[in-house]
Amino acid sequence: MPHATASWLVDNTALSFSQIAEFCGLHILEVQAMADDLAGAKYTGRDPVHSGELTHEEIERGQADPAYRLVMQKAPVDVSRTKGPRYTPVSKRQDKPDGIAWILRNHPEISDAQIGRLIGTTRNTINAIRERSHWNIQNIQPKDPVTLGLCSQRELDAAVAKAAKRAPVEAPAEGEEAAAAPAAPRDDKQELIAELRREREEAAKAAAEAAQEAEAEAWLEAKRAAEEKGEEETPAGSEAE
Question: Cα Rg for the chain, rounded, in angstroms?
Answer without folding.
Answer: 24
